[in-house]
Amino acid sequence: MKRLLCVLLASVIGLSTAACSSGTNTADASSASSVGSQTASSPSDSSLPYYVHSADKITGNITVYTTMEDKEQEVLKGLWSKYYPKCEMKIQADSIGTLATKIRGDQSTNADVVIGGMFQADGSMYQDILQKYTAACDKEQSYHDPAGYYTYYDVQVMCLVVNPELCKQFGVKISGYKDLLNPKLKKKIILADPSASSSGWRQLQTILAVMGDKFNDDKSWNYIKQLIPMCFSTSSSKAVYNLVSSGEYVAGLSYESAVKDMIKDGAPIECVYMKEGNTAMAGGAAIVKKAKNLPAAQAMMDLLSSSEFQSARAKESCGRGSNSKCKLNDLPESSTLNMKDLNFSYLSKNKGDICKKWNDLWAQLHK
Question: What's the pTM value of the predicted model, to 2 decimals?
């Protein structure tokens, strides 16, 4: 009997120990499983760039008003769908003037952001329809909006678009503004109207900056007086480089990214940087004041400010980015282009007077 009781007691102790051991292991396994689950989900968030938000928080629709060309739009769509698959992007493309008028005139507009067509020299022109925001990559940016509205992603540098075959036919060489005064080029040059086109206004700024002893002096206007009779004018920036490419004009006053992109696609033209000098101006985007999807609008500004987007855009459409880490794609360093500084506040305040002077001279001299 004693021997039987000892055996029974040993069995009970063994079962109790096993149960305790089993309970401990179960708890440990449960804890390990929980930790493993957390660890497995963390990399997907931690591996995202710091300027990318959680995809679960960026949902619904984002309506984008933009002046971007098709290639730029495709780059943006690709990155947006990559990071925010739960938020559909809807795009309406037009000129900045038309888009701004639509926002101001339609109280029910569903625009969340405006991308493109807005530059450093705008002053307070669009602030009534926008709201302030500082993008995630602001510290990497080489350009900043002191008023806090714009998120820059583009730097516009000017150029001459030249048809080399026609240059041979006319026996001319074009390397700068002065070469446009060659009598052989009379009526063979096209430019955009500064009062109707952003690129035309940028070209006028550049001429006033590099063709005189100081900005907007008599010397620079004397050059303009000689240039006007040589040219035809258009209200369209696109018409300038398209008509030179098609052979209707020998040269045009244009901007770098568009001309370089056409060359990339095989257009028979050249991008000539004026030997007299050049100017640069940042352009960007902003959040509409009454954005219906503010989280998505903020995520959009953060993405636009990134070197990832700007480098991808540079590769596809030859844009020059404002992020200091953006890679150039077949573009010269700005330090090689004899850049002249612009007074953006002065340009904003005096655009009307400067354009009026241009228009008066055009009416007087272009016959």
Answer: 0.82
